[in-house]
Fold this protein.
Amino acid sequence: MVQRMFGTNGVRGVVNEDMNTDLALQMGKAIGKFFNGTVAIATDTRVSGDMIKAAVSAGLMATGCTVRDLGVVPTPAIQYHVKTDDDVVGGVMITASHNPPKFNGIKCIDGDGTEMPREKEEQIEVLYASEIPCQSWNDIGSMETYGNAGEDYIDAVLRHVDVAAIRKAGLTAVLDCANGAACRTTPLLLKKLGVRAVTLNADMQGEFPGHPSEPTAENLRDLLYLTKAVNADIGIAHDGDADRAVFATNDGSFVPGDKSLALMAKSTVLANGGGLIVTPVSSSSMVEEVVNKAGGKLIYTAVGSPIVARRMMAEGSKFGGEENGGLIFAEHQYCRDGAMTIAKMIESIVKFGPLLKQIQELPVYYTDKRKIECPNNRKADLIEYMKGKFSPGNKVDLTDGMKILFSDGGWVLLRPSGTEPIFRIYSESKNKDLAEQRCGEFESAAKAFMEDSE
C-alpha cells in the first residue's frame, strides 16, 4: 500500500526531520514526472524556504522540467500565474501556511491554478514511492526566474472591485502581514486602492517574530489595539502564505471568520440576484440564514478548500469559502485568496457602511470548539461509536465525520483532522450554554470510548 503523504494542504513536516531535502528531492522528481513541462515554484518567508525549494527544483529539473522561480509571493499569486500562463503546466508552493516556523511544506498546484485534487495527489504519491528515472545530461531541465508574479496578481484583483469608489472614500487600514508572503503584495494593493495603510509585521522574517502566523484573536492583540487607537476603518491580518485574511472593526473587535464569510456571501448573492454559495459542514448556520434571507442557496461540502473550490466549479457557484478566513471568489480564481478578500471587504465598507455596523446586523449564533486525541487507525471506530450513541432521534449528516442536527436548529460536528491524530468537535446553537453543554457531552463520550478501548 502506497503511503499517504498529502494532507489537507500539501505535504508538511518539521524541517530536517520529516521535511528534509531527501524527501523534497524525491517529491520534486515525482511532481516533475507527473507534470512534464514548465513548473512554477515559489515560497513564503520561512528560513527553510530556499533549501526546500532548491531540493524540489533539483528533482523537477532532473526529470526534464523547466522550473520558473517566482520568488517569495502569496500562494494565490502563484496560483494566478499558473492559471493565466499557458506555458506553465503546474506549480509548487513551498509553505506551511499558519504552522510554526520550524515547519515547512510542499503544496501542488494543478494546471488550472487550483489546489491539486486528491486523485492527482495519489498519482504523485505512487510516483514518489517508485524509482524515478532521470533524464540524460543533455535533456535535463533548467531554471528561469520571473519577478512580477506578485504585481500581476494584485493588478488582477483590482479589476474586480470599484477602485474609483474606494479611492474616493479615503479609508484607513491597519495591516498585519505576519512577517509572511504578503509583506510586499498587500501594501501594494492598499496603495493602489488609495487606502492609507498603517503596517505591522510587514518585513520578511521567516522566524515570525511578531506573533505566530495563525491569525487568531489572541495572536492579533497588537492589530486590535492599533486599529482602535488610530481610528482605522478596518484592521486586516494574513496567515503566513496569505491565502487567508481576517479582519477587525474600528473599535478593535476581532471579526470571526464565519462572520466575514457571511458578509461576503450576502454581498455576492445580492449583487447577482441569487445564486449558490458553497461552504463546508463546519461553517456556522448563520451563513445559511444570511444567504437564504438574501435570496440565495447554500451547499455544504466536506472540509477543505480544494473540495469547496471544485464543488463551486461543478455547480457554477460564484462564491464559497471556509470559516477560517479562506474565501474563494470565482470571478478571479477558484482558490482561497487573501488579497481578493481584502479588496472585496473594503468595497463592502464603501457600499454598505462601517464593518462594525454590518457585523452587528448579522444573526447571533454561539460556537464551542474542542479537540481530542485519537490515533488515525481508531478514527473510523470512534465515528461508528458516536453515531450509534447520538444519532437515534436526530438527523445525521455524514458528509465529513459526523454532524448531528438537533430539532432546535443547533448541531454538533465530530470531524477527524486530515493532518493530525485528533478529532475536532464543533458545537453551535443560538443558546450559548446549550452549545457548550453539547460540546462537553460529545467530548466526554469520545474520551470515554478512547479510554475504554485502549
